[in-house]
Specification:
Layout lengths: L4 H15 L7 H8 L3 H13 L3 E4 L5 E4 L8 H9 L23 H18 L2 H14 L1
Helix pairs in contact: 1-2, 1-3, 1-4, 1-6, 4-5
Length: 141
């Protein structure tokens, strides 16, 4: 499984907003801090906004902010929104077609364990956890 640029950038955008919790943050400021094209960010933020993860306010004092507290966003929510399925193989994805080899395929058991492990990590890690990790790394510098 490889997380695409879209998924990685969505996570960085959400983390940046979490770092400025309670503030309205302009997209150009996030783009500058995260070194992401503002045009590309507009596409990603639209997806996050439509899903209700962020709120936008127009005007001179406008910007984006998280709708909930950082501890209420699991990394898995954000990645699934932008990536779709995170299954390591097609046969484990949500809309997988029936496979003729399914009953005798030993490898599917391995793929399922990998998928379960990934889901466990991303579903139990929150934006707040990432903020805490970021703060620890900053202290070490």
């Amino acid at each position: 499984m490889i997380i695409s640029t879209k998924g990685r950038y969505a996570l960085r955008i959400m983390l940046d907003l979490a770092n400025h919790s309670g503030e309205k943050v302009k997209l150009k400021d996030i783009a500058s801090r995260q070194e992401i094209s503002e045009k590309y960010m507009e596409q990603i933020i639209a997806v996050l906004n439509k899903a209700g993860y962020v709120r936008s306010t127009r005007g001179a004092r406008g910007g984006y902010q998280l709708v909930k507290a950082p501890k209420e966003y699991a990394v898995g929510m954000i990645l699934r929104l932008t990536e779709g399925s995170l299954a390591p193989v097609e046969c484990l994805s949500e809309n997988a077609l029936s496979c003729a080899r399914e009953k005798k395929c030993a490898a599917v058991e391995l793929y399922q364990r990998i998928y379960d492990a990934v889901n466990d990590v991303i579903d139990t890690t929150t934006l707040q956890d990432l903020l805490d990790i970021e703060q620890e790394k900053t202290k070490r510098e």
